[in-house]
C-alpha cells in the first residue's frame, strides 16, 4: 500500500518508536505515580523525559505544564471548557476542526458563552496577517476571553499567522488557544514567542507517536478547571484534584507505552529537523500539484497555497468513489468532510466533500507518481 493519509495519522512509524514502545511493555511498564517500586519509578522517569522533549520542542521552560491527554480533541476540550466562564465571548477561525467547533457550539447552545467566527481569507491568494488580524480585532468585545485557532488546516495547505494573532490577543488580554494538530512536527511553534496560552496537539501525527496519546501545554501559571477527576497518584485522601499541573489534569492511568514511543518520535523530529521535514513534504506536494494540473476533470482547492495537504474534487465523480478506486489501486487517501464542516464550508467544497492527499516525510516521488497514474486511469 502507498500511504498518503498522514494528516489522519502518520504511517509508518519510525523503527525506534516501535522498539521503545515494545521495550517499555517488556521491561518497565509499571503504573507511573502509583507505587514506589522500580517499575513504577522507571515508567514515571520515561514520562518525565517525554514531557521535557515536548516542552523543549515547543519552546517552553516549564515541562511540568505539559499535560498528557488521550488525543488533541481531549486537550482542546480541556482548554476550552476549563478556561471559559459563563458569559464569556469566544472567537474561532473559519478553518476549525470539529474538535474546536463542536465544544464551542455546545457551550453556546447551553447559553454559557457566545462566539463569533473570524475569516481566514483562505481563498484569497493575496491574504496577509494584517488582514486576518483586522478581521479578528473587529470582532473583539469587552467580554471576549478566548481565541481558538488552528495553526495549519487539516484539509488544505493554509496556515494561520500565530505570531501576529498571539500579539493581538496579548494586547487585548484575550487567551490564545492553538490547535497544532497539523503543524506539530511540521512547522516550528514557540509558545513564548507566539504568546500561546494553551497549545493542543496529538502525538500520533507529525510527532510520529502512536494513537492514544496527545498533550496540552499550558503557558505560565494558567489555571484551568478539570475536565476529568479521579486518581492522580498524589493527595489521595483529598476529595478534589491536586492544585498543580500536571497531576491536576491527568486523572487515571497514563498510556505509558504510547508516551514512551512518543518520546522517541519527538527525538526523531528534532534530529531530522523541522526545516528538513517541511521541505521534503512541500516538495512532494509541489510535485503532486504539478501532476494534478495535467489531469482534466479535477479541481484543486486553494491552489495558490503550499503545504503538506492537497484537497481536490471531480465534478464527474463522487469523492468516495475516487477514494474507493484508489484503495483498489493500493493508494490510501481520505475522502468526505474530514471532521471539519466549518472548513469545508469556507472552502466551498461540493455536497459530497472532497479528496485529501497528505504525504509525509517517509513518502517518495514514486508514491506521488503512482497516485497520479491511478487517478489518470480512473478519470479516463
Summary?
By secondary structure, this protein is α/β, with parallel strands linked by helices. It has helices at residues 15-28, 38-57, 72-83, 98-109, 129-137, 162-172, 256-272, 274-292, 319-328, 341-347, 365-379, and strands spanning 2-3, 66-69, 88-93, 113-118, 144-150, 175-179, 198-202, 214-218, 299-300, 310-313, 331-332, 334-336, 354-357.
Describe the structure.
- The chain is α/β, with parallel strands linked by helices and 380 residues long.
- It folds into two domains: 116 residues, Aspartate Aminotransferase, domain 1 (Alpha-Beta Complex), CATH 3.90.1150; 257 residues, Type I PLP-dependent aspartate aminotransferase-like (Major domain) (Aspartate Aminotransferase, domain 2).
- The chain is 38% helix and 14% strand.
- The protein is built from eleven helices and 13 strands.
- Helix 1 packs antiparallel against helix 7, helix 2 packs parallel to helix 7 and helix 8 runs parallel beside helix 11.
- The two termini are 22 Å apart.
- The relative contact order is 0.17.
Amino acid at each position: 500500500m502507498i500511504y498518503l493519509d498522514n494528516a489522519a495519522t502518520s504511517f509508518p512509524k519510525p523503527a525506534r518508536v516501535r522498539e521503545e514502545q515494545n521495550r517499555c511493555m517488556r521491561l518497565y511498564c509499571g503504573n507511573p505515580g502509583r507505587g514506589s517500586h522500580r517499575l513504577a519509578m522507571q515508567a514515571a522517569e520515561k514520562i518525565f523525559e517525554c514531557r521535557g522533549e515536548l516542552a523543549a520542542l515547543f519552546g517552553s521552560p516549564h515541562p511540568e505544564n505539559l499535560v498528557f491527554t488521550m488525543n488533541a480533541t481531549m486537550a482542546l476540550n480541556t482548554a476550552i471548557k476549563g478556561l471559559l466562564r459563563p458569559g464569556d465571548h469566544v472567537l474561532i477561525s473559519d478553518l476549525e476542526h470539529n474538535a474546536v467547533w463542536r465544544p464551542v457550539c455546545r457551550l453556546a447552545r447551553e447559553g454559557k458563552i457566545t462566539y463569533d467566527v473570524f475569516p481566514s481569507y483562505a481563498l484569497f491568494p493575496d491574504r496577509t496577517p494584517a488582514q486576518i488580524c483586522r478581521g479578528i480585532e473587529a470582532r473583539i468585545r469587552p467580554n471576549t476571553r478566548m481565541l481558538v485557532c488552528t495553526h495549519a488546516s487539516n484539509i488544505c495547505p493554509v496556515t494561520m499567522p500565530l505570531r501576529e494573532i498571539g500579539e493581538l490577543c496579548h494586547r487585548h488580554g484575550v487567551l490564545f488557544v492553538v490547535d497544532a494538530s497539523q503543524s506539530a512536527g511540521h512547522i516550528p511553534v514557540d509558545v513564548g514567542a507566539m504568546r500561546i496560552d494553551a497549545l493542543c496537539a496529538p502525538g500520533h501525527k507529525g510527532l510520529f507517536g502512536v494513537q492514544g496519546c496527545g498533550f496540552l501545554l499550558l503557558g505560565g501559571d494558567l489555571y484551568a478547571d478539570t475536565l476529568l477527576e479521579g486518581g492522580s497518584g498524589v493527595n489521595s485522601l483529598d476529595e478534589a484534584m491536586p492544585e498543580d499541573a500536571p497531576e491536576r489534569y491527568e486523572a487515571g492511568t497514563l498510556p505509558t507505552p504510547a508516551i514512551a514511543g512518543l518520546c522517541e518520535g519527538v527525538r526523531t523530529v528534532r534530529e531530522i529537523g523541522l526545516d528538513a521535514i517541511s521541505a521534503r513534504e512541500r516538495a512532494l506536494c509541489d510535485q503532486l500539484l504539478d501532476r494534478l494540473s495535467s489531469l482534466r476533470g479535477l479541481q484543486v482547492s486553494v491552489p495558490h497555497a503550499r503545504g503538506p495537504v492537497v484537497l481536490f474534487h471531480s465534478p464527474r465523480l463522487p469523492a468516495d468513489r475516487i477514494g474507493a478506486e484508489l484503495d483498489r489501486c493500493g493508494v490510501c487517501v481520505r475522502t468526505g468532510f474530514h471532521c471539519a464542516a466549518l472548513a469545508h464550508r469556507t472552502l466551498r467544497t461540493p455536497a459530497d466533500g472532497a479528496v485529501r492527499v497528505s504525504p509525509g516525510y517517509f513518502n517518495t516521488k514514486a508514491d506521488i507518481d503512482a497516485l497520479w497514474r491511478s487517478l489518470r486511469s480512473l478519470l479516463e
